[in-house]
Design brief:
Low-confidence stretches: none
CATH architecture of the largest domain: 3-Layer(aba) Sandwich
Largest sheet: 7 strands, parallel
Number of domains: 2
Mean pLDDT: 87
Radius of gyration: 19 Å
Oligomer: single chain
Shape: globular
Structural class: alpha/beta
CATH class of the largest domain: Alpha Beta
Number of helices: 10
Order of helices and strands: EHEHHEHEEHEHEHHHH
Length: 249
């Protein structure tokens, strides 16, 4: 079964070692990836990463952003990575070698995707994983489950390139109502739903944070299109008006 070819972005969340960022960029260049975004890098680390032999183009075009949504908001498919099975948040867990098959089985036309990698020390946190449609598990041995960041990027890029799941260029910028909604649109809808739920008393102070993570997971699971978001946004706007929520947008 042939995987859907799509443009991929590699996102590194809070990396701590400039050598690892350089190694990740080199691995990307090796396998035809060009789009690198680094979330909340320590400034000295980011400044030291400006040179990566063989991957200068990737590094020089890379962007540093202040939050995860800034890195993935324009995308409609986000895959997190882990070396184990912890903190899945009930997201679908896929072994790395099964990722191309998983992609081929989904309806993923006109999607732009990202692979997320956590920091060397902590990996991806629960909040980061709540934005992921699925989680890829890199199969390492139980005795040494942790993997170097640059190597993790390399093996993931290799698997996608081997399966010919990497598009040479991004899809047309033309937006269709039937296209999958990107993360910015979904988060806008999510924020609107949160305001309504908070006003109705559904959200309790002690469980609010955990409930919001679960609600975002549910929203991602619906795989909404742009048209779905438009309709649901209109419904929530009417509810806001009816119960007297002042919208500052």
């Amino acid at each position: 079964m042939k995987s859907a070819a799509m443009p991929w972005r590699i996102v590194l969340v809070r990396p701590r070692n400039p050598l690892n960022i350089g190694a990740a960029a080199r691995a990307m260049a090796n396998f035809g990836f060009r789009d690198l975004v680094v979330v909340e890098p320590h400034d000295p680390v980011w400044q030291e990463t400006r040179s990566a032999v063989g991957a200068e183009d990737v590094v020089h075009s890379a962007r540093a952003v202040n939050g995860l949504l800034d890195a993935i908001g324009d995308l409609s498919l986000v895959i997190g990575t882990t070396s184990g099975s912890r903190r899945t948040l009930d997201r679908e867990m896929i072994s790395l070698q099964e990722l191309p098959v998983w992609l081929a089985q989904k309806s993923l036309k006109r999607r732009r995707a990202a692979l997320l990698f956590g920091s060397e020390k902590t990996g991806l946190g629960n909040d980061h994983l709540s934005y992921c449609h699925a989680i890829v598990r890199i199969p390492t041995t139980p005795d040494t489950p942790s993997m170097n960041l640059g190597q993790a990027v390399a093996v993931c890029c290799y698997e996608l390139a081997r399966a010919r799941a990497v598009a040479d260029r991004p899809p047309s910028s033309r937006v269709f109502l039937s296209d999958p909604a990107n993360l910015h649109s979904l988060e806008h809808l999510f924020d609107r739903a949160v305001r309504v739920l908070a006003e109705s008393g559904y959200l309790k102070p002690k469980s609010r944070a955990a409930t919001l993570l679960k609600l975002r997971r549910v929203l991602l699971g619906f795989r909404l299109t742009n048209n779905d978001v438009r309709i649901l946004g209109g419904v929530l706007a009417q509810i806001e008006w009816k119960i007297g929520i002042v919208n500052s947008e």
